[in-house]
Structure formats: C-alpha cells, structure tokens
Design brief:
- By secondary structure, this protein is mainly alpha-helical.
- The chain has one domain: Growth Hormone, Chain: A (Up-down Bundle).
- It contains 15 helices and no strands.
- The protein starts with 14 loop residues before the first helix and ends with a helix.
Length: 470
C-alpha cells in the first residue's frame, strides 16, 4: 500500500467552534472534580471533623454503589433518540449536581451522627449526578465525528481547556480561605463553600454552551433487536470475550487509582510535609493542571507521530514512574524544586490520561467493525465504572493511610506534624502511585490491538460510513 497524506473528510470535521464549545462544558464539569479530588478529604477531616477511616469507607461505598449505575446510564444514553441527539439532553443534569456540590462543601450545625448522615447522603448524590453528566460527555466526543484524528483532537482540546479551572480554582480556594478563614489554614469553611458556589455557577453556564455549540454527526443506530436499553445486559454483551476492553479496563483502573490518590495526597504533602500555607498549596495543586495541560496539548502530535496508543503507554509509563522518584528527591531538597518537577511529572500524566481514553475509542471502532453497532456510551460506562471503583479505592487507601500515620478529624487547625506523619504522607504520595502506574503499564503490555489492525479497521469503517451518507 502506498503512503498517502492523511486528510480529514469535510463531513467529519468538528471545527474550532465545536471543539471549544465541547471543551467549555467539559471544563465546567471538571471544575467539580478538581476540588473534590484534591480537597474533599481535607475538608471533611479538617473542617467537618470526620474520621479519615470513615471518610475512606464512605467514599468507597458510595463510589462502588454508583459504579453499578454506570452501565445502566451508558446503555440508556446509547439508546436515547431525541431531536437534540443521544447525549446532549443529559448535559443539563449539571444543574442539580451544582446544588448538591455546594451542599457537600458546607458545614451544617448538626450533631456527630447528623453530620455522618448528611455527608453520606450528599456525597452519594454527588457521585450519582456526576455519572449522569460525565458519561454523556465521553459519548458525545465519539458522536461528533467518525474520524479518529478529530476525536483525538477534541479530546485533547477538552483536556487542555479543562485545565484552566483546574489551574485557577485551587488558587481561588487558597485566596478565599486566606481572606475569609485565616492565613495559616490549609482549608476553611467559608473559602470552600464560596469556591463551590462559583464552580456550580460556571458549570451550569458551560453546559448551556456545550449544548448550543456541539452537534452529533456520527449517529450509528443500534440494531432493531437492541433498540431498547437493557443496562447490565448491554454491559455484559460489550464486555463478553472482549480481551482488548478487559485490558483497557485494568489500565484505566490502575492509572486512575494512581492519579486520584496522587491528587488527594498532594495537598497533604504540600501542607504537612513541605509546610506550605493554603495559598502555596493552591499553587501546587494548580501546577498539576499546568503540567497536564502541556502534556495534553502535545498528545495529538505524539499520536500523529507514533500512531499507536499502546506504544505511547509503553514509553510514557516507565518515564512517569521514574519522575515520581525524582519528585520525592526534589521534595527533600526544597519546595521550589518539587514544584518544578511536579509540572514535568504531570506532563506525562496528561499524556497518559488522554491515551487511555483513545484506547477506548479503538475498542469502540473494533466493536462497530465486528457488530455494525456503535456503543460509545456503554464502553465509556465501563470506563466510568472503573474510574468510580478507582476513586473509591484511592479514598479508602488515603483515609486509612492518613489515620494510620497519625492524621484524624481535628477541625480547621494546623496540627503539629511528627516524622511518622510526614514520612507516611510521602509513601502515600510517591510509592503507592508508582506501584499502580507500573501495574497499568503491565496491563497494556497485553493489549491485543495492533497499529496495523486498527488502521485497517478504520479504513473499512470510513468506507461503510461513506456508503451510509451516500
């Protein structure tokens, strides 16, 4: 076969406006996760005064419970048929989600039992509503174009733009905590709640922008026999005998476990190992977004050059593990040096995060090639299921780990840090993520879809789509 210049068909171009509108909504959604992943445990321990072990178990139970809802929602979205498309109507679920998020970062005057019930209920509602918002966003990216390069491009755009709130919100929270709660605090009641209100307003506006600016072009209908959504049945039909998806699930589980645990413990590491006040902790959390943004900007160019998601993972994961070790050493030298290498580390985090998503698109294309049915939302429901499980496991490890080394719910005060506490935080911050990233790397070693195979499949799908449009 002669080498040809890759050209995106005009009907498969999403366009700059479509990519920006999709990315704005995605960024609004990710504003919730920025604060929830990095600060929820810190808030619940240091402001609400809950036990670290209880928080870990609560998050695990809520996430696992919610994870079993993912396949049902994924199947429902894949079988939705409205004049607005399959996925866009679900974007407005962000409205009740914003209300619940504000309630989650409030500190009501309740007794100890009342607080336990309150936070269990609102964390569970937050998790459920986040699913209703997130899965359709992932499905929408696949429905906007048939072209794999365009899908990779809109995914990269969304991750890059979503890093704007990921950069700005920790700084905002740190400034608000300093202004309304006290300069010496790592987290505070007023600063956290004001930040949650701002996030909710931004997310609702962003959802309307995505709804107005995104168009679902790539609509591949389900076969008549499966037009009715069947939740777990669709889930198992997609999963059954699908080795590639099983491998991607393992890679997603371990790498998401790694990133969420890193995000949760990073704020503790900055505050209690490096001794940083709220504003510097906010800078450290924001720099995670800077590094990831750079990596996600570079990803389409890396993919265009290597043309293999598996190769990117095989090269990137070992470098990521090595950089974790470098960051640990840098932290023993100075906070400034740690922050420099934190940006570099998260450059690779950004690359590998998008890469796992694009492995899912490969699986979706293979399914369509074999069955003639596209099931993006169901596949991404599987991914979301694993992400929820990973988040629950990360919360449990963080909660029990922090309590084991001496942290407990003590209210919003800077506590005296012992050597055991600081060393324990360092182990949770670096050693555990390195092990998890290595397991993700080992899983991808077994990934069966080759570069030549996926190229041939996509060429055949392009022919089929051309006939459908003709």
């Amino acid at each position: 076969m002669s080498k040809q210049t890759y050209v995106i068909a005009p009907e498969n171009r999403i366009g700059v406006v479509g990519k920006i509108c999709y990315s704005i909504g995605f960024a609004g959604k990710d504003g919730f996760t920025t604060i929830a992943n990095s600060y929820s445990m810190l808030f619940l321990m240091m402001v609400a005064g809950l036990d670290g072990a209880f928080i870990g178990v609560m998050m695990l139970v809520c996430r696992v419970w919610d994870a079993f809802f993912d396949p049902v929602l994924g199947s429902l979205a894949d079988h939705t048929n409205t004049r607005f498309g399959r996925f866009r109507p679900y974007l407005f679920s962000v409205i009740p989600m914003a209300i619940v998020f504000i309630a989650l970062f409030s500190n009501p005057s309740l007794g100890s039992t009342g607080k336990l019930v309150y936070y269990c209920v609102f964390y569970w509602l937050y998790s459920m509503l986040f699913t209703v918002v997130e899965i359709p966003y992932f499905g929408l990216a696949g429905a906007m174009s048939f072209d794999p390069q365009e899908r990779a491009s809109v995914t990269a755009w969304s991750r890059i733009i979503s890093r704007i709130p990921a950069f700005a919100l920790p700084l905002l929270l740190g400034a608000l905590v300093t202004r309304y709660d006290g300069a010496g605090l790592s987290i505070g009641q007023n600063g956290a709640q004001y930040t949650a209100i701002i996030i909710g307003i931004i997310a609702v506006i962003a959802a309307f922008v995505s709804f107005a600016g995104c168009k679902e072009k790539a609509l591949v209908n389900a076969e008549p026999s499966v037009q009715k959504a069947s939740g777990w049945k669709d889930f198992w039909n997609v999963l059954k005998g699908n080795r590639a998806l099983l491998i991607v699930m393992l890679a997603q589980l371990f790498f998401t476990f790694n990133t969420i645990l890193s995000d949760m413990i990073n704020s503790y590491y900055l505050t209690y190992y490096l001794g940083s006040p709220a504003i510097i902790t906010g800078v450290g959390v924001a720099l995670v977004a800077v590094g990831a943004c750079i990596g996600q900007f570079l990803y389409p160019y890396i993919l265009s050059g290597l043309k293999s998601c598996k190769t990117i993972m095989m090269i990137g994961a070992p470098i990521y593990c090595a950089l974790l070790a470098v960051c640990y050493v840098a932290g023993t030298v100075s906070a400034e040096l740690y922050l420099v290498f934190l940006v570099i580390l998260n450059l690779f985090t950004g690359i590998l995060q998008i890469n796992v998503i694009n492995l899912c698109f490969e699986v979706c294309d293979m399914l369509e090639y074999k069955n003639g049915v596209r099931a993006d939302a169901t596949v991404f429901a599987v991914v979301s299921f694993l992400m929820k499980l990973a988040a629950g496991l990360a919360s449990t490890i963080a909660g029990f780990g922090l309590q084991l080394v001496g942290f407990a719910g003590m209210g919003p005060v800077m506590i005296e840090v012992t050597q055991t506490m600081s060393e324990g935080v360092a182990v949770l911050r670096f050693a555990m993520p390195a092990i998890l990233a290595l397991l993700s790397f080992l899983a991808v070693c077994l990934y069966p879809i080759t570069k030549s195979q996926i190229t041939s499949v996509r060429e055949e799908l392009a022919v089929r789509h051309g006939k459908q449009e003709g």
